[in-house]
Amino acid sequence: MIQNQLLTGLTALITRPRGQGQSIVDAIAGAGGKSVQFPLMEINPVSSDESVIELRKQVQNLDRYDLLIFISTNAVKFGFQWIDRYWPQFPAQLEVFAVGPTTAAALTGLPCTVHSPSTGMQSEDLLALPQLQQVQGNKIALFRGRGGRELLADTLRERGAQVDTIETYERSMLVPETGELLNSISENGVNVICVTSMQILDSLCHLVDIKKDGIGLLPLLVPSERIRDNARTAGFVNVYCSYGASDEAILSELKEIAGYLSS
Question: What is the distance between the alpha carbons of residues 135 and 132, in angstroms, rounded to a whole number?
Fold first, then answer.
């Protein structure tokens, strides 16, 4: 099979947040497939006066922490918009951790080692790292978006660490008409849906009736086992896991799905 035709016959619905889907669209096209962007979420920096004041104070005191943890590429993107402003020279004593290889890659260039699990991209994988087993007395800054899972912060506190959550961005659902989504799927011949977060899956499930509208019969690609389990509970029948939300991980699993579709 010719390399650039590995995805021939596949048309993916890309639901990544607004403005963040073009790289995977280009990768799919380069492999001979098609895609349709249909963002179900947008991500913006925190903007309320209270949030900005708190964020500024936390970042200005960055050298008082022992460990920094970034939970996503958005945490890196929006976090460093503040860190670069107040720390042109990154504090050398800090240990840095990332949830997943894509987030770790976004931290390339820091003058320190970035620790990241090789086994997965979930909080549970990060918490299994040897470096985070004995954290009693450590002061940890957790860069993340507003809301989301509390498992990471709560577990590190149970292990004796002081954890401050530094919320640098906020998510908001985009709410198109149900008919708009269904028409986009039908008119473009979409035969696989790509979801890259639990929040996007929730948005999709709120927008349509998974079983009644027939969406649950389409192959669904998700980045983790936790989201796969939730998708199956929601009514999706054919759920594939890419074990990561990077373009490379998604493209690799799409090639497997394309092989299934053509068989």
Answer: 6
Nearest to 51 by CA among 169, 205, 148: 169
Q: 67 Cβ partners below 8 Å, 6+ apart? A: 94, 95, 96, 97, 135, 138, 139, 140, 141, 161
Max alpha carbon distance in the chain (Å)?
A: 57
Copy the structure tokens of residue 246. Answer: 């990077």
Give the model's pLDDT for residue 111. 86
* Predicted structure pTM score: 0.85
Domains in the chain with CATH codes? 3-40+174-262 (3.40.50.10090), 44-171 (3.40.50.10090)
Are 73 and 144 in contact by the 8 Å Cβ rule? The answer is: no
Evaluate whether 41 touches 203 at the Cβ level (below 8 Å). yes
Distance (Å, rounded) from C-alpha 216 to C-alpha 253?
Answer: 18
Are 62 and 83 within 8 A, CB to CB? yes
Q: If you search the block for the tokens 């929601």, which residue do you land on? A: 234
pLDDT, one tens digit per residue, over 232-245 is 999 999 999 998 88
Confirm if 92 and 109 have CB atoms less than 8 A apart: no
Per-residue model confidence as pLDDT tens digits over 145-198: 998 789 999 999 999 999 999 999 999 988 888 899 999 999 999 999 999 999
As a whole number of angstroms, the distance between CA 227 and CA 239 comes to: 10
Residue for token digits 């894509």? 102
